[in-house]
Amino acid sequence: MNVKDLDPDASPQAAFGARLRRLREEQGWSQDQLGARMEYSSTHISSVETGRKMPTLRLARRADTALGTGDSFEREWREMHQGSLLEGFPEYVEHEGRAVELRLFDIGIVPGLLQTPEYARCLANSAVRRGEITPDQADELVAFLAERQATVARARPPMMLVVMDESCIRRQVGGPGTMGAQLDHLLRVAELPNTILQIAPFEIGEHRALYLPTNLLTLPDMTVIAYAESQMRGHLERDSAAVWPLLTAYHQLQAEALPQSASVAMIREVRKGYQ
Q: For the whole model, what pTM was predicted?
């Protein structure tokens, strides 16, 4: 695509690129110079400016830093992604990036923060085949997840408490290679000093205290917020009157789940089926 033919009104992606180019030129910088400041290649900057490549959250934040635009590029990026993310999730992710403790519970699939790129890509591609999202949105979701994982894996990472329903490790996603690598990754995660990984086995039956994927975040001021999802909707909850019962349920779930050593043993046993 020729730069001068780019129409900022063509799409939010085009508008993002056009604004990036305009501000770069106002500074008198080449794509090489802006790329050096943002730690991207000039080719990557060119692709974003001309709308050929979708900007990531990381790129938006670095553009704000390099160009002194506050958080305007980041806000523009978030507006672009509202269509492919559930309601409440973008705001949840902002809190996730600064939380001191994360409590995660998921059913059926491995929690996003623990997914390998191949596992995440397989889920996104499946959503494309079902017509739920476009290929571009699939790319955005996979890139967005990588950004989240990088943010949580910071110099002083948060404590992460994870309870997964047994279905998360029993349900094969992708081929044996993809699933085997995902289980290997879970075993590595369980060895991290800031992580406690537990499996809620099928046998606990009705004693499983949570029935929807639920995340609880402890923020630096020690307040706790919750995020829960249904098939079509996400909800961020800040009201302590609603959050505390969820926190109680999470503690009850942890009590019923297998301890980490037994959970790791179960993952290793399932892994044998993917040799």
A: 0.71
